[in-house]
Write a structure and sequence with these properties.
Strand content: 15-25%
Strand order of the largest sheet: 4-3-2-1-5-6-7
Helix content: 40-55%
Order of helices and strands: EHEHEHEHEHEHHEH
Distance between the termini: 26 Å
Shape: globular
Low-confidence stretches: none
Largest sheet: 7 strands, parallel
Radius of gyration: 16 Å
Number of helices: 8
């Protein structure tokens, strides 16, 4: 893995540990020569992870829609900032630029990005590892919900197992490096999309 997309909040959240772990993630990616791809903003955990990676000598590519340039405040010190027209183009570009995805705490936008990436993986549109850094149990309830989807027959266990989870950065990266995607997508091929 040479490039990791990180989805995370444009806020800091209520606990200091979120900022601490975002900082550590950015530093860890840089130290491992992994390029950070993220949403391009200079606010919240987004700005924290980017600043940490840059501060540790890493490469950081931001992908930001034009209409969010003023709201999220584009980061001005990035290795590269790519401006796109829509949120969908943003996710598509971030997917194109990465070898895997890590999700940190965030709100609706973070969840929407995460679920689109894991859905694309389920459909066989990519074979990249998707990891949740479950900082201080932030995603415990979501993980329970995903298991409920399996238990109630709405999600297959093989697709649940595509989701890699850890509260430790190094452990999560190791899981991602060793990830093997299911050999069969859910229903369609990439050409059918």
């Amino acid at each position: 893995m040479k490039s990791i997309t990180v989805f995370c909040g444009s806020s800091f959240g209520s606990e200091d540990i979120y900022k601490e772990q975002a900082t550590l993630l950015g530093q860890t990616l840089a130290k491992n020569n992994m390029q950070l791809v993220y949403g391009g903003a200079d606010v919240g955990l987004m700005g924290v992870v980017a600043d940490a990676a840059l501060g540790a000598g890493g490469k950081v590519i931001g992908v930001l829609p034009h209409f969010l340039q003023s709201k999220e405040i584009a980061h001005k010190q990035l290795t590269e900032l790519i401006l796109v027209e829509t949120m969908h183009e943003r996710k598509t570009k971030m997917n194109e630029l990465c070898d895997g995805v890590i999700v940190l705490p965030g709100g609706y936008g973070t969840l929407e990005e995460f679920f689109e990436m894991i859905t694309w993986a389920q459909l066989g549109l990519h074979q990249k590892p998707i990891g949740i850094l479950n900082i201080d149990g932030f995603y415990d309830d979501l993980i329970k919900l995903v298991q409920t989807m399996v238990d109630k027959g709405f999600l297959k266990q093989i697709n649940r197992d595509m989701l890699l989870i850890s509260n430790d950065i190094d452990n999560l990266l190791e899981k991602m490096k060793n990830y093997e995607a299911p050999t069969v997508g859910k229903w369609i091929s990439k050409d059918e999309v």
